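Board work, copied verbatim: Alpha/beta fold hydrolase
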Amino acid sequence: MSETPPNTLQYRFDGPEDAPVLILGASLGTTWHMWDRQVPELTRQWRVFRFDMPGHGGAPAHPCPSVGELAERLLATLDELGVRRFGYAGCAFGGAIGAELALRHPERVASLALIAASPRFGTADEFRQRGVIVRSNGLDPIARSAPERWFTPGFAAAQPAITDWAVQMVRTTDPGCYIAACEALAAFDVRAELGRIGVPTLVLVGSEDQVTGQGEARTLVAGIPDARLAVVPGASHLAPVEQPAAVTDLLVRHFSSAWQDTQTAIITPPVKPVIAPPAAAPMAAIAPAEQPEAVPGAVRPDPYDAGIKVRREVLGDAHVDGVLAAADDFSADFQELITRYAWGEVWNRPGLDRRSRSCVTLTALVAGGHLEELAFHTRAALRNGLTPAEIKEVLLQAAVYCGVAAANSAFKVAQAVIREETTPQE
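↓ predict structure ↓
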């Protein structure tokens, strides 16, 4: 047992020490055990390296705010072990890490397999909404719905032990790290960069996958030069679990035929696996996004682009798209004004984090009686990390300083929004 530093990952090796390294990356909410049934066959040719994401499988709860940073933590772990070049297979979130590695560090990746993956997973709104659900209700609603997202109905019914394993695996994930991973996927989008992936790539998808299905797989194949597509019959999102033999066979064939430059895959002997103890804290804190420092005398860029980015992150793509679509010659200049100055200037300043700005905004809207804006800024406050209990405290504080009547109306609006946003979808 050993402590895993914040900049590295919990991992394990299986297979011969002198074999080339093949990395297996897991899906969000799962652990390295999702690959258990691939390991016996893969270790005939490769030294298999598996890792857990922060807060998963008892790994220390050091949340990772982006796919890029998680890829860097993986590389830092490999650097400590002397692993320079490797093959990589990743499922869903693990596939995003693989794409990131192939784009930013192509010299490290010998061959790539993307399973149940996508260049952009759903929409940013969907993942930030999932974060709101977890922050308000914990992981139990996500855990209970995991089997229907991950497996075909027939498999889930016929394999109750595996179904229960899936539910418990999600329940034991650190909520703060899960929310941070949702934020990372919300920001992940490599659609415009697929043409720069230059390593041999297999894109594998379950025929019944309703999460990242054949449409997403074909987008990857169309964008990545010379990528090949494999569809696994009778499999849903976690194809390596549901159809282990078929997935293993495809991986063996791909990495056996498409491995590039396997020499010196390990430049120093690997150390023994490091298994970190469970994190002591029940939920990891999510650090606010870093803000760029101003450079004295520098020409300031137009804040519009930064403003539209922040506006979408706080209010959601659906809301912003609706407002901009409704703008006409009369209102378009106003929309540009608030995007540039309210969102690009004030909301983008480093002096307050977004949670604090949401508290100030809610109070101001209560004071002004702006109930329509209070509704979508209550949604924004949930997305920015405020819990329903914290929003209640803001409104109670506002009742003292803005008036009971104003707060009474505000409570009705906020209550309806919170109920809608935090009730898990059946």
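The domain at 11-263 is CATH 3.40.50.1820 (Rossmann fold).
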